[in-house]
Specification:
Layout lengths: L12 H6 L2 H5 L5 H6 L3 H15 L7 H15 L2 H13 L4 H5 L12 H13 L8 H10 L2 H24 L5 H10 L13
Helix pairs in contact: 4-10, 5-6, 5-8, 5-10, 6-11, 8-9, 8-10
GO molecular function: peroxiredoxin activity
Keywords: Oxidoreductase, Peroxidase
Protein name: Peroxidase
């Protein structure tokens, strides 16, 4: 049971309009947003930040951003965000082999050297204490320019907020996200945990 009960999807008209963004990315409006709209300014600011972070400017693809979000969320233990990000990665073209091998990325040939550098950065940046060091920075800069690094760190930081929000709130997982977690993350022993309805 969540700490705070989400409001209905049509509670605030402006939030409802902004939240249509999630129909593309997930196929539904997340319960996290429905909880945030108890203070509509927080929901509006979050959705606008999410849209800005996930906007494509070039080589950091929608799928890669969701995989970076997944690694960030799994590293912090947020089952809610793990299910959302793996579902969104699939919706943005993540193949079965890429989704299944995400935790073997270091040895896998389905990821480029640049993607692997982004994943290492996500792991280091989402660790407490922060583990970004000169080696990770140097490897990242081999493959990504400053704008792309800002995009990647934007995703990591966005999910840092969401991981704290959803794990502390105990946000209930939506059925589509549960299906994605149980199907796409079964090899990782994913479970709903505290995010049950």
């Amino acid at each position: 049971m969540p700490l705070v009960t989400p409001l209905s999807q049509d509670h605030d008209q402006e939030v409802t309009e902004l939240a249509k963004f999630f129909n593309e990315t997930l196929g539904f409006c997340p319960n996290s947003v429905l909880t945030m709209q108890i203070r509509p300014a927080i929901a509006r600011a979050f959705i606008n930040l999410n849209k800005a972070v996930m906007e494509n400017h070039g080589r950091v693809t929608s799928e890669l951003k969701r995989l970076v979000g997944y690694i960030t969320s799994a590293n912090t233990g947020c089952r809610y965000c793990e299910a959302h990000t793996i579902l969104a990665a699939q919706r943005y073209g993540g193949t079965d082999s890429r989704l299944a091998q995400i935790w073997q990325f270091r040895e896998s040939d389905v990821f480029t050297a640049g993607e692997k550098a982004a994943f290492e950065f996500a792991l280091a940046a989402s660790s407490v204490p922060n583990a970004v060091d000169n080696t990770i920075e140097s490897e990242l800069k081999k493959y990504w320019d400053d704008g792309e690094i800002v995009e990647i760190l934007g995703v990591i930081s966005l999910f840092g907020y969401l991981n704290r929000w959803n794990d502390s709130m105990g946000t209930s997982l939506e059925s589509g996200a549960i299906d994605a977690g149980e199907t796409l993350l079964k090899q990782n022993n994913w479970e709903v945990g505290k995010h049950q309805s």
